Amino acid sequence: MDPVTAVGLAASIVQLIDGTAKVIKYLNDVKDAPKDRARLAREATSLLAILTDLRYKVEEANPTDPWFTGVLSLGVEGGPLDQFNEALEELTRKLKPEKGIKKLSKTLLWTLDKIEIDRAFTKIERLKTLVSLALQDDHL
Fold first, then answer.
1. Over 60: is that where the pLDDT of 58 sits?
2. 3-state DSSP call for residue 61?
3. DSSP secondary structure string, 1-34?
4. How many CB atoms lie within 10 A of CB 61?
5. Which helix (H) or strand (E) covers residue 65, if one does?
6. Cα-atom radius of gyration of the chain, to the nearest Å?
7. What confidence category does residue 140 fall into, taking pLDDT thresholds of 50, 70 and 90?
8. What residues make up the domain containing 58?
């Protein structure tokens, strides 16, 4: 396993950490949001902790470890990390506050509907499960 692959995986994880942190910030800034906002923020915060743990494990891992080889499958193109990054970008677009004049005239309001919220929860739970399983394999 070449070191470039390990660096690429770590970079993908860092990108997800940054994206998740942005979403959490936007969720916490929302005014007049339903209780789903708080639930989504808690789930994203939980995922942030798991991704941070994965990042450091990947950075410290020996690329020849069977665990590391399995974790690499999370970072393949179109894989779970890519899919989650796309979901984060979509959430960020929907939650990102307006800039300039629009910001003055509009307070960030809750704009996600029930279907979008359910999709976000499903994606977060899926990635949390996959990363948690990968982290458990490290302890075997």
1. yes
2. coil
3. --HHHHHHHHHHHHHHHHHHHHHHHHHHH-BS--
4. 18
5. none
6. 17
7. very low
8. 3-138
Q: Are 36 and 120 in contact (CB under 8 A)?
A: no
Count of domains for the chain: 1
Distance CA 87, CA 96 (A): 14
Q: What is the pLDDT of residue 108?
A: 52
**Tens of pLDDT, residues 119-136:** 888 888 888 888 888 888
Residue 32: left (phi > 0), alpha (psi -120 to 50), or beta?
A: left
Q: Which helix (H) or strand (E) holds 60?
A: helix 35-60
Judge whether residue 117 has pLDDT over 70.
Answer: yes
* Residue 47 burial (C-beta neighbours within 10 Å; 0-12, 13-18, 19+): buried
Which tens digit of pLDDT belongs to each residue from 19-32?
A: 888 888 877 776 66
Residue 31 pairs with which residues in a beta bridge? 109
In DSSP notation, 91-119 reads HHHHHSPP-THHHHH---B----HHHHHH
